[in-house]
Amino acid sequence: MAVNKKLGLTALGAAMAIGLTACGGEGAGAASGEAPAATAAPEELTIGVSMPTQTSERWIADGNAVKSQLEEAGYKVELQYANDDIPTQGQQIDQMLTQGADLLIVAAIDGTALSSQLQAAADANVKVISYDRLIRETENVDFYVSFDNFKVGVAQGTALLTGLGVLNADGSAGTATGPFNVELFAGSLDDNNAGFFFDGAMSVLQPKIDDGTLVVKSGQTSIEQAATLRWAQETAQKRMEDLLTGSYADGSKVQGVLSPYDGISRGIITALQGNGYTTPLPVVTGQDAEIASVKLINDGVQSSTIFKDTRELAAQAVTAAEAFLEGTEPEANDTETYDNGVKVVPSYLLPVETVYKADIQSKLIDSGYWTADEVAKGQSD
Ligand code: GAL
Hints:
six-stranded parallel beta sheet, elongated
């Protein structure tokens, strides 16, 4: 059982476990007065990794990166994808726990839907790391690894203004003054990140709506109106088609679309092309540097994306997992922002980068994230 491998060891078991741990036992001492935490060798431990879906390139990259880095560190890994289905994710996590997982890394589909599984994890002394999406409304989440999600939104709003020429790439005021017709898309409301992205974007766009530089012809400016359930490409395509029919049938044109995620961007682009828009298309933003969208950016179809290096995120998840399994606390760099409704979850947040066409080589290819060949094909090898 997980609990035996980590904390509640017998004296003999603990001695064996410490003996097996070549190093890394160093930092495992508990605060003075408490019994020292015993640790097992990585080879003795299994980490359950629960990812939302394989329909998106990014989660496949995340899953692969987390698995391979954990395996390199010696751990056994049980990686599962839940097909964007909430009950499936619950069942998969239940199963990981009954099979004796020692720690969980979870990117939730619905941030509030895993309470019973996480209670079971807590009862078994299994630590839970919330991966990129904050798990909400439970005490039983121990750490959060993500990016600075408000800044992602700021970067998306800024990229929209830059694409329109209202701002220059260096952030200074551009020459274009509009008014420009724009429409706004947000992510899935059950994902805590969606609000951060939208709020961040609106922090730069709302003043431009207020001063008349931007016009949202549909009038749909609330996150509820802009939301896209499960971040689904087809849902975004349908909404964009409806917006074009409903607000642009008079011959007016949309000039920019705020999109929070590359899959949504591709749905928007398909809708625009289906409605007769040709290159240069309206400015469409994105996120995740998914390979299909990097190709679209390279081809001058999509305007920008936000690059979040999933290799770095995976590395942070692994670092946090190692700390917990060695009986210490992972290092947080934010202990204020991510209140999950029950507690503020200590977090490690990574920085993000905006990618326009001119940045593909330096930010994505030179860093080894994608090869030039993959960018040309729009497919990963
Ligand atoms: C969010 C994540 C984004 C994007 C989106 C859709 O939680 O932060 O980067 O991947 O999900 O998958």
